[in-house]
Write a structure and sequence with these properties.
Rossmann fold; 7-stranded mixed sheet; 6 helices; disordered N terminus; binds 5-O-phosphono-beta-D-ribofuranosylamine
């Protein structure tokens, strides 16, 4: 087949990331070694220079990098993104440390096909400082959530969760433990979703 990543049986994933991209790498690795019957056809990144871009280059993932400030509105850049998703025949969008709220345009065109990973047991500790807040509360059971993305902040229907015990006060340690779990949970959850099990 000449146009081999277009709309054939294999599922096409887009990952959105703003920072380090360790979850992007977990997903891309699982695609590369066959644990996921899918490929990452696009990395969307709103931070020129982000660490994730080097990871994407190593995997040969096409990237769409943009600076939101060069657009007049969220609708404008989301239209460009949605057009790219269309042209790559994206089946599912994985938010992985994408530090922006998904807006109307992407929800209208990709709603029901966007998932996010969040470092708490939702609905506890929504938002950007979930781990720090949980530590501040003295939480003893931490966790990771993967959920559908809707118009609410970290409020869409939950797909998967995994918990772990931690009785300390170091947010960096919670992040370290949590990220190992995130990488596994993202791949396992995608495998189920893509095979129609979830
Ligand atoms: C993860 O901790 C995820 O839960 C949160 O953002 C972080 C992204 O990490 N949404 P990375 O860029 O994938 O390493």
């Amino acid at each position: 087949m000449s146009d081999d990543h277009h709309c054939n049986y294999m599922k096409n994933i887009a990952v959105f990331a703003s920072g380090s991209g360790s979850n992007y790498e977990a997903i891309a690795s699982a695609c590369a070694d066959g644990r996921l019957d899918a490929r990452v056809v696009l990395l969307v990144c709103d931070k020129p220079g982000a660490f994730v871009l080097g990871r994407a280059a190593r995997f040969g993932t096409p990237v769409f990098v943009f600076d939101p400030h060069t657009y007049s509105s969220k609708s404008e850049f989301e239209t460009v993104i949605a057009d790219r998703l269309d042209s790559e025949c994206v089946d599912i969008v994985c938010l992985a440390g994408y530090m922006r709220i998904i807006g109307d345009v992407l929800l209208a065109r990709y709603g029901g096909r966007i998932i996010n990973i969040h470092p708490s047991l939702l609905p506890a500790f929504k938002g950007a400082h979930a781990v720090e807040q949980a530590v501040e509360y003295g939480v003893k059971v931490y966790g990771i959530t993967i959920h559908w993305v809707d118009e609410s902040l970290d409020g869409g229907r939950i797909i998967a969760q995994r918990s772990f015990d931690y009785d300390g006060d170091d947010p960096a340690e919670v992040h370290r433990i949590g990220q190992v779990i995130e990488h596994r949970l993202y791949v396992e959850t995608l495998a189920k979703l893509l095979s129609g099990e979830s």
